[in-house]
């Protein structure tokens, strides 16, 4: 069975998802309860987790969820915003299609034909979106938005000193959207303390964040049954197991790590031990006992007081260690081992080949080593002396139910991921036309197309044949090179990677959207006519179609500049080749510096909305204008939800108006919110959403295959055999 | 068989609390738990139609463990209560009923969840800071020089579990035993960190409750056949003990990953047995009197030891190993080779005791903080209930040592808190409304919901249709019998308040609980004379109740904050 993939379907799916996630967005968001098949309950406001818990079946929904999770893996934040933004984008696109429907109605076309034609159109739009993402977005970010950036670092010098106050604000805002509303203060305070306690030197936050993010599971202890307010940070490392032997010791304690059993075995893997007599057996057992004792004695002579083992040690070793006053902790996980090694830089102890006594080189000191009792469960508490910039601390998370503790864990882990992203520079690169008129003034040669005048029916066949490989090719190519310049034929869209800085003929993306004011659109635009006089009839028909009903874009707030533009959108898939001189384009490489933040509460969205509209006004390329507008309007969806419950002066229209006025008069925007959010995160979110949207738009057909999942087949066949 | 199947999509329902089903299941749970609460609580019988044992109980731990719960929000509630009970043993019903009441009351209000959650948090912190403060009039500092308060605490816990089926005399006996068992676990010469010992509860079914006893040391149950083999124990001042954690059965422990080739005619069993006999010889020459083994001792070795008048007991199990090593004052031996003399322990005496139909091997330590509490009760289910109650009481005593306070029980803490909250919110609302954007009326509504949740919690102590009064001075809880002759001037009747601290001779202005009355400042700063004068008080564990209060409010907030439920139907 095949189902047509279309924007309408995608929009339906996105709207359903939106209703679920929008309830959890922002500081006013509420919690969602997920039950697992095992009967456990999980409390969550994490968009990614919710989407996964839904086990969606719809193919488009699955594409969306896959996109969200890949985005989350990168940044650890923004799943809910992702869905809402995507939904608004799709809404914007559908509005356009509704208006444009007539322009594509060829009288003699059949339904299937129309479908293919539609898909074709979506592909153009998706290409325009990609162009936007790779060119305009970076440009706008760099040129306009960057003026408003704040930084969480207290000084602008190379030394990145983190300002505690800003960090608190950043975390507060993050947790507002992640944990229950009476806990976010506590959790963000906990994390802030944690970060500062763990950092030995202010300028080396990045290393600390990296370790904490990598080893978060080992650095937290969860306790259920206690109130959340009992959560705290404790100095040192807590291993989630009890001592096998505990011998109290004072002062600095020397430790060793072993990765194998200390007691020698009869035979190692791959070898054979031949027993010829009972005496031999007894002698070897005796030797094993003596040897074990000797090694443990040796450790004691070296003043070792604690033995950390990754494997289970035999009873004999435990007994000997107890006799010699050495505490033993067994069965450390590889992750715990690697964390300890990272912190104290200690290599595992290698058992000496002979019983000759030599200095132990692989030992380290710990400040203390004692049992820790949390909720009548015993843990090992180690005061490691750090050799790197990370001073080990553990977070003890308490909560009445496991589900809540897990939520806090996830939120904390996500926050560390987010902070790591904040500390990274984000590269922006874009092409800027040195002369804005380049596109229109540049020489254009209308390439004769084979298909353009043919009957749509025959066109369909050729699309069908060539479609699949095109998409595949397209995707691969795009992901790899992010080439901005493509040749765009009416039906087949090969992406061609260009060598930059070489004078060459540049194929240009050619989704032409004439996005003009009422007056200009009445006639077929003169410059088009000029360019395409050799295809007069074709153009004529197109422009006839473009005289669609004059729809007014609804922008709900009065006094806006936007509203004045009564727009008429028309999308005309045209094919032409523009030869531009590469020398007239310059490549810019810039970056969003690390630590850039903006106040929360939709500030980023409103700013970008404003600048995109400004850009769209100046922009000459009509398809870019259209895309910019759609995106700019979709951006407003997020602050709208955030301010939904606010009334009076804090309602969305008021906030929006104040922001616009401030921007127009170049005054700083005044925000009533205290939190901060990372710009880089928002930027990445935007690009991920656009990529997801292109993904959805380029698929024209979903084919349901009946084959069983592979695993089941394998299992069955094995059993039959 | 493992089969990978495509997952079914989950069902998603929004606003889980507004539904009729949710409301009904919450009300059902509340009704169930409320009827169990307190000394007069009704018992519940849990049974499975297919067979198995029947449990009669009124404790939250036993009740919630057996109760099937389907609605997700109720699942959250029961999970929170069970976790609380796992941490503190006591106060499960208190937490659960308070949480149910809060959710139901707040739902009736019709305020937005955000407001209620924020305000509830403020009210909670008002309560906790009052309970922790010096002026609190429902908290009594524990005087460790006398046993009165501790005994009252244990008694209160015992009487609040009617399924134990104890009569007053038995309650006295058991509570003394529990306190004695607890005191035995406290080390004599305490340094900075007190490490408490352990009381091992040994249940004995089918005996009289009065036969229960506390014995120092450890009881190891032995079968009669085993007992026949153990020789009459000689008399001595002290017995040398060898405690093994390795198996003494002569099995070949792991030989590594490689192969072991044994030539024809070589018997490893004999070799292993030889080794065991060598060990036995060493034990005999070291004058060991008692060999205890966690695992199995080879019969030949046992025989060998018996011939040398060494008592051997095996299959002790891992749970008894730690107390045993404490009793013997040694570490378990993990070696079959030479044993260093320092790893032997000693006990003061060992004897064989018979309680009921069971035989026990009794180890009496020289000086250790281990004791055995032998609990007898008439039938299985009452015995289980008594065991659980004793564990609760012992735990409560441990918590009291850590934080040496107790709270007034019998509903008095709740009614006193209610009076305090009403007074504070009515007369000093500024402290709540300082930095938040809430109106006075929102605060009053939420505070009223909070107070009535506490009041109906206190009110659920009364199961026999009686009336509940509060006084206008202390804000305590007074219960009056139902069906009084109308001629009697009823406010004169209650003789003592719920906790037993005050008697009614003073001039108190009475009013019905849950009736509108003018808020009054309850008398703070408990006078110590008052606590001294009352002989039997009803008391609650401070730590458990405080945490229960916090957990209840936090869980209620959590439930109220839910916007939708995603149910995984796989």
From TrEMBL, chain A:
One of its GO terms (biological process) is chaperone-mediated protein complex assembly. Gene3D superfamilies: GroEL, GroEL-like equatorial domain. It comes from the Eukaryota. InterPro entries: BBS10 (IPR042619), Cpn60/GroEL/TCP-1 (IPR002423), GroEL-like_apical_dom_sf (IPR027409), GROEL-like_equatorial_sf (IPR027413). GO terms for molecular function: ATP binding. GO terms for cellular component: chaperonin-containing T-complex. It holds the Pfam family Cpn60_TCP1. PANTHER family: BARDET-BIEDL SYNDROME 10 PROTEIN. This is Oxysterol binding protein like 8.
Automatic annotation (TrEMBL), chain B:
Keywords: ATP-binding, Chaperone, Cytoplasm, Cytoskeleton, Nucleotide-binding, Nucleus. GO terms for cellular component: centrosome; chaperonin-containing T-complex; kinociliary basal body; motile cilium; nucleus. GO terms for biological process: artery smooth muscle contraction; brain morphogenesis; cartilage development; cerebral cortex development; chaperone-mediated protein complex assembly; detection of mechanical stimulus involved in sensory perception of sound; face development; fat cell differentiation. InterPro entries: Cpn60/GroEL/TCP-1 (IPR002423), GroEL-like_apical_dom_sf (IPR027409), GROEL-like_equatorial_sf (IPR027413), MKKS (IPR028790), TCP-1-like_intermed_sf (IPR027410). It is found in: Cytoplasm, Cytoskeleton, Microtubule organizing center, Centrosome; Cytoplasm, Cytosol; Nucleus. It comes from the Eukaryota. Its main location: cytoplasm. One of its GO terms (molecular function) is RNA polymerase II-specific DNA-binding transcription factor binding. It holds the Pfam family Cpn60_TCP1. The keyword Transmembrane helix does not apply. The keyword Nucleotide-binding applies. Belongs to the TCP-1 chaperonin family. Component of a complex composed at least of MKKS, BBS10, BBS12, TCP1, CCT2, CCT3, CCT4, CCT5 and CCT8. Interacts with STUB1. Interacts with BBS2 (via coiled coil domain). Interacts with CCDC28B. Interacts with BBS12. Interacts with SMARCC1, a component of the SWI/SNF complexes; the interaction takes place predominantly in the cytoplasm and may modulate SMARCC1 location. Interacts with DLEC1. Probable molecular chaperone that assists the folding of proteins upon ATP hydrolysis. Plays a role in the assembly of BBSome, a complex involved in ciliogenesis regulating transports vesicles to the cilia. May play a role in protein processing in limb, cardiac and reproductive system development. May play a role in cytokinesis. This is Molecular chaperone MKKS. The gene is MKKS.
